[in-house]
Amino acid sequence: MARIVGVDVPQNKRGEIALTYIYGIGRSSAQKILTEAGIDWDKKVKDWTDEEANKVRNIISKN
Q1: 39, 56 in Cβ contact below 8 A?
Q2: 2-62: which CATH topology?
Q3: What distances in angstroms separate CA 5 from CA 10, 21, 57, 59, one per listed residue?
């Protein structure tokens, strides 16, 4: 599982859905985060590169 801000997000879920496992992030916020990171909403977390996961971590932690 990818660990983002202390939460293990499920690998087999689409990024848009997986990010909602983090407290305070809903679908619209998840979509904004993924758009800012340049990641397709439908891309599963297990298919993210380390660079993409780091982009998501940085975006979430700065907000």
Answers
A1: yes
A2: Helicase, Ruva Protein; domain 3 (1.10.8)
A3: 14, 11, 7, 11
What pLDDT shows up at residue 1?
A: 59
Rg (CA), the chain: 10
From CA 47, how far away is CA 28, in angstroms rounded? 21
User: What residues does each domain of the chain span?
Assistant: 2-62
N-to-C CA span, the chain:
22
Return the sign of the alpha-carbon dihedral for residues 39, 27, 6, 12: negative
| Stated pTM of the model | 0.89
